[in-house]
Automatic annotation (TrEMBL):
A GO molecular-function annotation: DNA-binding transcription factor activity
Domain HTH araC/xylS-type: 198-295
Entry keyword set: DNA-binding, Transcription, Transcription regulation
Name assigned to this protein: Transcriptional regulator, AraC family
Any matching Pfam family: AraC_N
PANTHER family, per database record: HTH-TYPE TRANSCRIPTIONAL ACTIVATOR RHAS-RELATED
Taxonomic superkingdom: Bacteria
Amino acid sequence: MKVIQHDKLKSLVENKLSYYSDNSELGIYNTYQKSSGILFKSNELIFGGALAGRKIMHTQGIQNEQVFLPHESYIVAPGETIEIDFPDASLSTPTTCITVEISNDKMDQVTDRLHSILPDIENTTQWELGSPILHTHHCTETQHLLNRLAKLFQENHPDRELMIDLNVSELIVRLLRHKTRDFLLARSNLDPEFDGLTNSLTYIQDNLSSHLDIEKMCKLARMSRSCFYIKFKKKLGCTPLEFQLQLRLSAAAQRIKQHELMTTISYDLGFSSPSHFSRLFKKHFGYTPSCFKKKHTQAKL
């Protein structure tokens, strides 16, 4: 085991503390001054989460930018080069993020184990999903997992390597699940009648604000109720009702960014009341809708 810690401030931009294990590396980056165009590249997959402040990431050669705030995460495909801006960083309020770099061997190991269960999982070399940077609002469970990993990497526990390996495996599984969901949703949009499962996914997307008719979904999927629930959870990792709620909350987050009224959003998406919507939103994203709106409004200033 090798642990490198930088107790003294060596750089005002992307000052890094590194912690190593057998198949992964955890990096904690602090930036203490406004800067732009900072290049970042890794030969292995990077999962990153914003902890404090705002960072803006650009893909070289592509006219786009993605803003990352706390409780949001990103995946950078192996071999990609990105540029990062830190528009708000200062000595008193540094921009902080955490990254987990996962070896290709570890990715392949976990993917191979899952592939027999989820044949829709794509090859790990295709993580870009149409873009070298995959941007997502991670849920509270993923945030807890990142916090746990950060703690484990910094411990000298005799079982440190084993516990890190188990938690990195969990992180990979969560990423693969997320990727597979996106793949299945994209396929249902392109060809709603591809199979029974895509039929049911199309039905859920078309009825986000309505009570789900499970019997109708079973008919669309051409399965018995028990078989439908088993296959749906095996592929999506959750029940149809849980999946509908996740899609509702994701749609709500996008509408909040467009400055729509909270009351309108909550009722349009089928929540019983604004307070009910607020509780579920905070449970999923870690922020109340009003706090989420405030952070994204500030990010545009």
